[in-house]
Amino acid sequence: MTRKILVLPGDGIGPEITAQASRILAACQARGLDVEVEEALVGGGAYDEYGDPLPAGTLEKARAARAILLGAVGGPKWDRLEDLSKRPEKGLLGLRKSLGLFGNLRPAILYPQLAEASSLKPEVVSGLDIMIVRELTGGIYFGQPRGIEERDGERVGFNTYVYSESEIERIGRVAFEMARKRGKKLCSVDKANVLEVTILWREVMDRLAPEYPDVELSHMYVDNAAMQLVRAPRQFDVIVTGNMFGDILSDAAAMLTGSIGMLPSASLNESGQGMYEPCHGSAPDIAGQNIANPLATILSVAMMLRYSFDEPALAGRIEAAVGKVLDDGLRTADIASEGTRTVSTVEMGDAVLAAFEGL
Ligand code: IPM
Ligand code: MG
Model-level pTM greater than 0.90? Predict the structure, then answer.
């Protein structure tokens, strides 16, 4: 297995936050992490340069890498591109699909230091530790047929929500295994009261359950799950769901923790390759201002070390460094609260690096 890491900074705040994460990665290399790091273009920047949000050269490098660190893609500059296949998001979706990165792990953990930054009451969110397992290469995001066409004198838009049993089983196993390593509770989220595809989803989850007798499986409709997430989020341990529901619920879960700027994610395939990215987007409104929160990207490096390089000690060291910086009262603007010191993107990177070295 190669020891290559491909860094894809992307658009908007992507380059600023990956720059800070790359400094931490370099510090890990100095401590013996044996990896080769290279960079490439993806998203809007790649479109501007090559007319393609996922140029062949980038895809080739991605295929050859053991792990990919991605910042974010997209921005208003490219929002008017009519051809969806040229949109920056297509760079990201194309990577996920081409590499078969079906298993998306999105942890939502509340750092006790940030309880005040959550829009929910501290007593509702304190101790929150949820893992959302989102299917990432199927469902309505990729189903065929899709398009916009003329029917009976008007334009009609359509997409297809489709999952095969094997796709459901594959993500189900990831989620059951994850629950096994955590609180042993798995909630499968669907819309089985309306959509056949999720009736099948529920059936397959039920069929797997006896193989994991130590895990308690429950089912919830997605609308109820959205409500429960903001009503009583600590009832959840692991949530497993399809691509689109997972997209929506993971943003909601992220915000429970105070800021979407804190949350890393991992997307894994069957051959052990992984792509690691912050859950937030490219935030074009604050791009280039040195105010974005780099912590989700830095924590994505920690996830990478844990899942792709089996380096739990270095991963733990990064996470502890982030904890230390928060303890010291440093905050980027998105997580600032009374009595804390607001710092820039680079200052936050400096502080995490210093804490990492000092631990
Ligand atoms: C995410 C993002 C992407 C998605 C977009 C940028 C295509 O929202 O990773 O959650 O919808 O999957
Ligand atoms: Mg999303």
Answer: yes
